[in-house]
Amino acid sequence: MAGHMTFDALKDAVSAGEIDTVLACLVDMQGRLMGKRFHAVNFVETSFEETHCCNYLLATDLEMATPPGYKSSSWEAGYGDYIMAPDLTTLRPVPWLEGTAMVLCDVLDHHTHAPVPHSPRAMLKAQIARLEALGFDAMMATELEFFLFEKSFDDIRKEGFRDLAPISGYNEDYHILQTTKEESVMRPIRNHLFNAGIPVENTKGEAETGQEELNIRYAAALDCADHHTIAKNAVKEIAWQQGHAASFLPKWHHDKIGSSSHVHQSLWCDGEPAFYDPNASLGMSDVMRYYMAGLIAYAPDYTVFLAPYINSYKRFAKGTFAPTKTVWSVDNRTAGFRLCAEGTKGVRVECRIGGSDLNPYLALAAMLAAGIKGIEDKMPLAPATSGDAYDDGGAVEIPRSLRAATQTLRNSAFLRDAFGDDVVDHYVRAAEWEQEEFDRVVTDWEVARGFERA
Ligand code: ADP
Of the four listed, 117, 181, 337, 352, which is most buried by Cβ atoms within 10 Å? Predict the structure, then answer.
């Protein structure tokens, strides 16, 4: 499709002087692009084979701290190198940056050249391989919701993140008039991403002031995660170019709706939809029922991969379209899992639990692992719920805090089997560190509440 670039095409573009910079990027635990900007001549001559980075990049936090407690990287072990191995199938132009192309890299051990097991891309590849061994391919789509603000990131930071003003003055859900006013940001997002080989479907206004949604056509699971990660970075860069800030913080204000990243999922076998059985109720095949049973049963185990920060849990609230229960329903947006396109070849399940801050590689890896477990164990699917799932007292709750979700991850025998103990322990440590940092800090809220009156 438009936008993908072969290595030969890159070499031609470099010789012609059209490309002078190549971004070589890995994806970190937070789902961010991290890496180096290569002079394009150096990249096509030597660095296309491999480059190196400090191994703290997969053991740090949003602030680039060096938290203690990771087995893989530490001060004691000297914070050595990883290999960044460019995956040349991901090579693409970056039309929103002049003369620039980009490639995603796999992260390999410096000595053995084996994939680093807790690297997000490696984790997703491992689950895709397990699924392929069962005869299936996963097709996924992640929706990206975010807020646009009037001011730029830098101005907002200098003002202490206070008095934040979204770009619009009213709920702009599906609004054409208001979103026309935002086209200086949203049109380049759609067009530049499309021209970078990301199959953009549409953008729309979402259900809050200044809230946007970007939809990308479903794709094989690894491509879906790559698309999401590149698109999220592009949204921030293009908003910055236009003098605005784009935020994927799931809940930037307690009185505002939060931002999600719903994940649509279906399995395929030899190009045919394995979730579809025209003779079965709602068109759901046995494979789909098993997969969904696994997804639902293990949702508490993997919630931390859908909601990785303290703020993520502020989004789960009754009556906000963000779910609180691990039940499924037919086209009902109050449940954690929604059946879409029932009775058709497009039948699929949408997980509504994830926030806009999820790392798509980790989220997809964990959900595929849960679905695989459901298929392997032929897990029975409970009947669909109907009505308002928020009030379904019998349903299992999604962990309601990072502390609770960390505990379910720590105790998850299923994820320890699927990912390995070292990988689970690595992400338990990441979640613990978030909690420790939050517990240490005195917040504005408690000062205002107690300063005089406590
Ligand atoms: P909605 O009503 O939720 O907006 P859409 O028709 O816009 O539904 O689809 C939402 C997402 O689901 C899109 O990104 C689309 O590409 C994706 N999608 C469609 N069919 C499938 C499928 N079979 N498997 C996975 N994702 C799919």
Answer: 337
